[in-house]
Amino acid sequence: MGEGIFRQKNGMVAIDIVASCGVMTPDQLLGLARLSEECGVFRIKLTSRQTMVAVLDGNGAGRLVKSLPGLGLKVSPYGNVVRAVKACAGSSALCPRSVGEALELGIEIQDKYIGMEVPKDFKIAVAGCIRGCTDPYCADMGIVATGREVFDVAVGGFGGSSKPIHGEVVARRISRDSVFLLIDHVLDRFRALGEPGEKLGRAIARLGLESFLPPAGLVKEALQAPPDDFVKFLEN
Amino acid sequence: MRYAGPAGVDLEKMAVPLENICSHCDYKGSPGCKEPECLVGFARRVLRYAVQKGLLDVPGASSLIPKGDFKHYYPEALVPALAETCRQCKECRDNHTPDCVVALVRSSVEFTVLSDNIPYPGSVFMYLARIKEQNSDLAALLAVELSKK
Q: Which residue of B has its CA nearest to A101?
């Protein structure tokens, strides 16, 4: 597994830093700011994957990398691995339009899968509603909340390309637990069937979506119980 | 749960055509009038609940739609209610879920005359096309109703 540390054309070093789907506490932000000053960071750039790239002179890079875990941050894995998860602000605290707790799910998915090896880089996007601010249909795996604990899942999207493709929905209105079972299944199939360097979407185009679909019974439809007070209101 | 205010959905306006359906119902005011078991009665209760709570969706409520209501309904009486849900969806521009209050009303009214529920396609034109696949007369009536200002 590679690490997101890159020598730049101007001789400086860029370090890709991962937080929890882009969420940081004030302490983390202050800590990173202080550390950046101490390590001689020239600029910090927010990336499209909700990570941060710190650009600095090579001399301070080692210290910066070593100090990140103390702030609850880490260097992003790079190469043919599951990358940092992109999740929208979808949560009851951060987005009034969100229908489910997408951010919390995204963080959990990132914690579980980041850095796992696959035939080609694997990007996951999680959105709290159908608007899809994180472009879930452009990710290898896109998860969209359609209810409080209810999700649709698409696979095989490939947005960053001169020939972009949209992912296809493989499961609708499934439970949170089923989302993890489906990710496990798709990653297993991708490892087994994908050729080295082949994006999931290209593997699906070559082999057919059926090769990646979950077996019957693996994922379960989310059952949402109506609120008790609504049931009482209905009956009285 | 979403709240009714910001999306600009007029729940009271949706209740009016439903009340008209009830006022012409043979069971109105009789012991046989049981709202939770009646598709139109269910829709009215959903609206009352939503107004009272200030909600725009009721998670899981679509599972409680009383699909066992086989009373006869006249399509002419139903189309104003269906049309109003289309207008409100157009105003809302929010997420579509089957447990959205507007969707709950529309699904309940659909079940009075259609055998299958129509997942709202996000456009009135597409919705009319889907209805036409099941009931062309209803689609024609709804198109006329929607053309009224």
A: B1
pLDDT in tens, B20-78: 999 999 898 898 899 999 999 999 999 999 999 888 888 889 989 999 999 999 999 99
In a domain, residue A227? The reply is no
Output the pLDDT for position A236.
81
Which residues on chain B are in Cβ contact (under 8 Å) with A227? 58-60
Reported as a single tens digit per residue, the pLDDT across A46-63 is 999 999 999 999 889 999
Asked if B112 and B40 count as a contact pair (C-beta separation under 8 A), the reply is yes
Please check whether residues A121 and A189 belong to one and the same domain.
yes
CA distance B146 to B79: 9
Instruction: Name the residue among B51, B59, B43 with its Cα closest to residue B97.
Output: B59
Residue A233 is assigned to a structural domain of this protein? no
Number of domains in chain A: 2
B92 pLDDT exceeds 70? no
pLDDT confidence band for B6 (50 / 70 / 90): very low
Residues of chain B found within 8 Å of residue A230, distances taken between Cβ atoms? 49, 58, 61
Q: Is A131 on the interface with B (CB under 8 A)?
A: yes
- Rg of chain B over all Cα atoms, to the nearest angstrom: 14
DSSP annotation of B3: B
Residues in chain B: 149
Taking the CA of residue A224 and the nearest CA in chain B, the distance in Å comes to 5
Instruction: Give the domain extent around B41.
Output: 4-147
| A97 and A165 assigned to the same domain | yes
Domain that holds residue A166: 86-212
Facing residues of A56 across strands?
A13, A41
The pLDDT assigned to B84 comes to 94
CATH of the domain at A64: 3.90.480.10
In a domain, A236, yes or no: no
Same domain, residue pair A45 and A94: no
Q: Is the ipTM of this complex over 0.90?
A: no
Identify the three-state secondary structure at position A19: coil
